[in-house]
Amino acid sequence: MQEKLYFYYTNDLHSNFDNWPQVAGFLKGAREKRLAENNSCWLVDIGDHVDRVHPIAEAFMGKANVQLMNDLGYDLATIGNNEGITMAHEDLHQLYDEARFQVVCANLHSMTNTEPDWLQSTVHLHSNNGVKIGVIGLTTPFNAFYELLGWHITAPFHTLEKHISYLSESADIIILMSHLGLTEDQEIARRFDDIDVIIGGHTHHLLRSGEEVNNTIMTAAGKHCAYAGEVVLTWDHEQKKLVDKEASVYDMNAQASDLNTEQTLKDLAKKADDMLGQSIIELNEPIDIKWFKHTEIMQKLTETLQEWTDTDVAMLNAGILLDQIPAGQVTHKDIHRICPHPINPCVVEIDGDELTEIVRASLTKDFTELKLNGFGFRGEVLGKMIYAGIDVKTFLREDGSEYVDAIYFNGRPLEPDQSFKLATADTFTFGRLLPEIAKSEMKHYFVPEFLRDLLAYTLQNKMADH
Q: Does the pTM of the predicted model rise above 0.90?
């Protein structure tokens, strides 16, 4: 006898609820169909469901996301970095208290005395006809952030080595829920023969029909739930082994919306508006935002960053503020709308030569007009870099490009070998946007505060006369 096992999954929603009613319709329909066929079926999420870029996630600190997953009858979830490092320790510790699904993440550990009640390293599922399925979850080890928040992420490969032999002995099938990214998933598939399926996420890769590496099938459904995924496993009870593994994704634009979910989102949005409606300041006139020009609000915000972090120099790109700040009562909702990014302040150590290169790079058209997608940035373009602590003198070339003429620190020309503590957005510590910052050996992140917290402080303390 052969038995089919169905897994339906989502990954990297990032609180982008535009497609969620369609996701709900698809998952409900898929589950009803499989149960009517008397087949075993599970709903799974691979992390980054929560993203505080959305007012609902911000107001409810992720718990509304859990409610939405409860409503659809999810069975399993692992956590992504957006659940893990964008909220205070206690908020994550309590995030899944009301979850009616199992949260599986083998490499997340609290550095306090108590682990969350909801946290499990592995779980075992059983099919209708007794097939034993061992599931393990892993999340990416951003320990520079996690440890500041009182968590530690053990190395994924070490964690797998610790658990895999037990799972091999206790389960017929092993599934990894991986919020590690495509490259890591491929390496795991090469190194761990016993893993049958890797359902992935984190790097927003889309594997439309899966990818097979060393007898492991890997799958992932992109980002924002534009797609949802299906894994179908066929177990032969006479041979006592898997005889087929299939993976596919479904376009959510082609799915009918679930009307109950639409109404729930409307209700949550209204509640979020009310919760974020508290006024933080009243302005007599609006404050304009300019992405490519120097403005008073960006200068004040950059100065706040320098003071907050107690550094020599601070710099912020004007593109972090997305819209003008209106006259009248300015609420937390306004602040969230204008500065929605899950970006933390960060301090790095650099020398004068490196600071000069950073300033030069930030003046280029390629930098200021870059439409960045990722690294926490949720805006349109990076925009003009604004500085505090240094005086940057520039001149315009004939082609209109801006060039560094001189940089002064405390009224004197910058010394090449002088050491500086530079505060900026943590965005620039990743990738190669500004290599001198990314390669700095000393990085200190300020968590859990976001740049919007500094914006609220700046408005209350430095812009009250507007």
A: yes
**Mean of pLDDT values over 309-338:** 97
Q: Which CATH architecture has domain 278-462?
A: Alpha-Beta Complex (3.90)
Task: Go through 269-278 and write b for each residue having 16 or more CB atoms within 10 A of its CB, e for each that does not.
Answer: beebeeebee
* Cβ-based burial of 337 (10 A; exposed 0-12, middle 13-18, buried ≥19): middle
Q: How far is CA 106 from CA 16, 196, 203, 226, 268, in A?
A: 27, 18, 20, 28, 32
Instruction: Count how many residues are written for the chain.
Output: 466
Per residue in 195-233, pLDDT tens?
Answer: 999 999 999 999 999 999 999 999 999 999 999 999 999
For residue 393, give every residue at least 6 positions away whose Cβ sits within 8 Å of its Cβ, in sequence order, or none: 404, 405, 406, 407, 408
**Average pLDDT over all residues of the chain:** 96
Percentage above 90 pLDDT, the chain:
95
Q: DSSP class of residue 123? A: E
Question: Which residue is associated with the tokens 């050996």?
Answer: 441
- Each domain of the chain, given as residue ranges in start order, spans 2-272, 278-462
Between 358 and 396, whose confidence is greater? Answer: 358
CATH code of 2-272, in short, is: 3.60.21.10
Q: Is the peptide bond before 286 cis (omega within 30 degrees of 0)?
A: no
Q: Please, how many CA atoms are within 13 Å of residue 214, restricted to the half-sphere of its CB?
A: 12
User: Cβ-count burial of 194 within 10 angstroms (0-12 exposed, 13-18 middle, 19+ buried)?
Assistant: middle
Residue type, position 311, single letter: T
Could you tell me the CA-to-CA distances from 77 to 100, 105, 138, 166, 343 in Å, in that order?
Answer: 10, 8, 10, 21, 25
Q: What is the pLDDT of residue 84?
A: 97
Q: Cα angle vertex 281, ends 279, 282, to 5°?
A: 100
In angstroms, the CA 326 to CA 340 distance is 16
In this model, does residue 465 exceed pLDDT 80? Answer: no
Give the pair of three-digit tokens for residue 185.
């998933």
Q: What are phi and psi of 402, to 5 degrees?
A: -95, 140
* Rounded-to-integer distance, Cα 23 and Cα 297, Å: 40
* Structure-token match 């974020």, residue found: 276
Among candidate residues 367, 288, 350, 268, the one with its CA nearest the CA of residue 314: 350
Q: Which residues contact 121 (CB under 8 A, 6 or more apart)?
A: 104, 105, 106, 136, 163
